[in-house]
Amino acid sequence: xxxxVLKQPKKNKTTQKKLLKSFKKNYALWLFVLPGIVLTxxxxxxxxxGVQIAFRNFNPKLGFFSSQWVGLKHFIRFFDSPYFFMTIxxxxxxxxxxxxxxxxxxxxxxxxxxSFRHKRYRKVIQTVTYAPNFISTVVMxxxxxxxxxxxxxxxxxxxxxxxxxxxxxxxxxSLWRHIYVWSGVWQGMGWSSVIYFAALSSVSPELxxxxxxxxxxxxxxVRYIDFPSIxxxxxxLLILSCGSILSVGFExxxxxxxxxxxxxxxxxxxxxxxVGLIDNNISYxxxxxxxxxxxxxxxxxxxxxxxxxxxxxxxx
Amino acid sequence: MKxxxxxxxxxxxxxxIFIILSIIFLIVAYPLYFIVISSVSNPEAVASGQVFLYPxxxxxKGYGEVFKNNEVMTxxxxxxxxTFCGVLLNLTVTLPTAFALSRDKFNGKKLVTIFYMxxxxxxxxxxxxxxxxxxxxLLDSMFALILPGALGVYNMIVARTFFKMNISExxxxxxxxxxxxxxxxxxxxxxxxxxAIIAIMVLYYGVGHWNSYFSALLYIKSEAKFPLQLVLRSIxxxxxxxxxxxxxxxxxxxxxxxxxxxxxxxxYSLIIISSIPVLVMYxxxxxxxxxxxxxxxxxx
Lengths: 316, 300
Known about the structure:
The structure holds two protein chains of two kinds. By secondary structure, chain A is mostly helical. Chain A has 16 helices and two strands.
């Protein structure tokens, strides 16, 4: 008994010493990571801890963590409100539509570009299709409003030129989702295809040569060699985008919102902004935000598990 | 026999993808081209839909209007300043972190990596983050725009992979034998060998700062500190202009109509001017951009 007691601290001391020694050896590297850790801690971890205001009645005088505890009150209030169904539905529809439209097109573009022989024209197409990715969201929405304007927009000019009637695009709520999604496809397809293009460039040319010897046509090579080679990349990206299906980007939705399309364009993130920072309902809006990230996390785990079972590809 | 059949199929395939790619090219390029030609056309011609393939009634009035607009000019300078300071901070935080995490001997590697990975999947959300910024008394200050995003985890992983692939272990060993410590090694040897990744980081972060409006919308209150994107928002999206006086006589209404068309024209010029920094960098760095995505897709 006594020996055991004596032994234990001795052992601890040596591990401590070891730790200290290796820390000393690495002290410069620890200094390197320190600023990032401090900043990330303050701006990512403290808010994470601050999530608990969703379970309290936020009172600015009492501050962050001593406001009154109210449990799930704000969550229940959200579930009971008419906005619950509306915002969830809008978020889901918009995300899902974006995913269905935006996911396959970059893959297709990469496959087409990769099997296109003319190097210079290929380069030109790549340069041009990447470019919209660098347009800011504000400018992108400004462009949309300019092009779609009922009085001076170029699209309505074309419509009226052919004898049609001008359409008030932004006022027509049935068109809003299509405008949102397809402008997003326009802006993102080139850039999203880069990652598939990278995956395709690692396909060994010997495979193509062998297929050629066996008498495969070009289309067959794309179908049976190129396409399968990017499936792992595509699966990972699909899992990731499924995991964020409830977090439709705030920025663009917010800018394209107006009173006429609010019933299809109010999504969870814009609602959180409105309730929290415009109406100053801090705790209620934090609860909605927390609910949103909770569902996202669950979706990510579920999709990852399904993918692991079906294809053996997973994030972790 | 079989071969000729395939040769014909190949030809059809080639022509088909040529056509599809050309259509894609036109769809992406035309709106961009249209903005350019409209920005130098007569406002009346743009408004009546005559401008289609080339500029009509060449004029630089729209650009003149932009340069006369004080808000735009202040915003432009503010954005340049925010972008410059922001990128500087991003680099001083991201590159050393990435370097440390790329070293096999670093005993905190796993711990620190997990610390960052967690932030990729869970976050406090808009409101708790806002409250932190508020409690630190950073509202309406430039620091609210640059401190919270000082280290982008994705960018850091890209840089880490780059260091791992490009700076060999032998180089470390050789330097260590000559008595070179980690700090000295990073500044004297690793950084000079890493110009490509520095370029990628400057661009990724730079474009991010230049294009961002959301954090400014949340945190910046005084108009004199607005970045360009917020000014653009009020002109391009919210359609706020300074012509809200009452107009009564016919001449005044006509003047007003002209002014309104000029405002529309100014929007096209504004789009071009706001994109200048990115446009200037784009041709030089396009290959770096792509390389960055490729490094990111490999992961480490």
